[in-house]
Amino acid sequence: MARTEYYDDPAAPEPNSLVVAASAVVTDNEGRVLLQRRRDNDLWALPGGGMEMTDSLPGTAVREVKEETGLDVEITGLVGTYTDPRHIIAYSDGEVRRQFNVCFTARVVGGRLAISDESTELRFVQSEEIDQLPMHHTQRLRIRHFLEHRERPYLG
Fold first, then answer.
1. Distance CA 153, CA 88 (A)
2. What structural domains and CATH numbers belong to the chain?
3. pLDDT (tens digit per residue) in 111-148
4. Residues 46, 103: contact at Cβ < 8 Å?
5. In sequence order, what are the beta bridge partners of 74?
6. Which of 80, 102, 115, 128 is the most exposed place for a label (fewest CB within 10 A)?
């Protein structure tokens, strides 16, 4: 299924769903950030996805990281909340989503890095490399907030 992201675009389709989602900035012992190249839009992104009825938000982040990367993680903190109504995500199945994303920090506690059917590539990336990767600016914003080592989470 293909995915198109819009930001502050008058041509964006009207949302037909609101999805609560979680993502995670997973770092390794060298401080590199885990990114996946998404199969649905060919852009780099943090692992994450929609919350299920039986999930907590931190549990969603843990489950999504496992499903998308093969790694077991432990949540260590909060980067922020990302609820900008100008960010619209349209899927080829007709869903047009407004997303409410809570982004956590996490560390690896087990598992083995493995590409899922949602990605074409996984890797831990040095902070200096991130700006060179094709990535939607809403993902880049979360990573930038993490790298700023903010005293308080971003609330937006």
1. 23
2. 3-148 (3.90.79.10)
3. 999 999 999 999 999 999 999 999 999 999 999 999 99
4. yes
5. 107
6. 128
Specify which residues 3 forms β-bridges with.
91
In angstroms, rounded to a whole number, what is the distance separating the alpha carbons of residues 128 and 36? 17
Q: Which residues make beta-bridge pairs with 78? A: 104
Q: Would you call 60 exposed, middle or buried from its count of C-beta atoms within 10 A (0-12, 13-18, 19+)?
A: buried
E-strand stretches of 8-153: 17-27, 33-38, 44-45, 48-50, 71-82, 87-91, 96-111, 119-125
Confidence (pTM): 0.93
Q: What is the pLDDT of residues 8-44, one digit of tens each?
A: 999 999 999 999 999 999 999 999 999 999 998 999 9
